[in-house]
Amino acid sequence: NPGVKVLEHAFYRLKERLEWQWIPSNPLPSGKKDWLDGGYSEEALHILTNNKMSVKETQEKQDKSCINSFFEESKSNPNIINEVKDLLKELKKKGDKVLICAETTINLPSHNKPYGIIAKDHAYAVADINPDNEEITVINPWNTKNMHKLSYDEFFKFYSAIKFVEV
After folding, report:
1. Predicted pLDDT at 133
2. Strands 135-140 and 123-130: what pairing?
3. Which of 76, 77, 84, 101 is deepest in the core (most CB within 10 A)?
4. Is 10 helix (H, G, I), strand (E, B) or coil?
């Protein structure tokens, strides 16, 4: 999906221009990766659509420590898995009328990357949701040639937030 890469690059260019105009005394980061570290998915989706963002995330993500995945949080909040499943089902019904991002946790060990594809503390575009098979397909905006299908169990194990905006 080249659209993901185009949107990320467009947001980078916008952020670069705004940063240069509004805070010229600040040194500019040297590369796109420095600008985009941390994802900024909610900011990017809001700016690109001018619509309100909606978020479902773990409590730790809300507290900005971003330690636990949905699976880890389910140990103290057993309802979160069902809440996320219900949300994914609703988002699937909205089809092309919603843009969705998913974010990973910061404590994902690099030696434990499933399939070598999931980076820690990173935002991914959600390309497809299949509630019947409990699968979700994500795209890394840094390499849009590969889409990765994950079971819900895998998704809940490594992701800590779903952010979306209706268009």
Report:
1. 98
2. antiparallel
3. 101
4. helix
Q: Mapping DSSP to helix (H, G, I), strand (E, B) and coil, where does residue 64 land? A: coil
| Angle subtended at Cα 34 by Cα 105 and Cα 7, rounded to the nearest 5 degrees | 80
Which residue type does 75 have? K
Name residue 52's amino acid: K
The pLDDT value recorded for residue 22 is 45
- The confidence score (pLDDT) of residue 23 equals 47
Give the pLDDT score at 146: 74
Structural Rg of the chain based on CA atoms: 16
Structure tokens at 107: 């404590």
The tokens for 61 are 């993500």
Range of the domain at 120: 2-166
Higher pLDDT, 117 or 75: 75
Of 43, 15, 16, 17, the closest CA to residue 123 belongs to: 43
Predicted local distance difference test score (pLDDT) of residue 134: 97
Q: CATH number for the domain including 137? A: 3.90.70
* Average of per-residue pLDDT values in the chain: 74
SS3 116: helix
Cβ atoms of residues 73 and 60 within 8 Å: yes
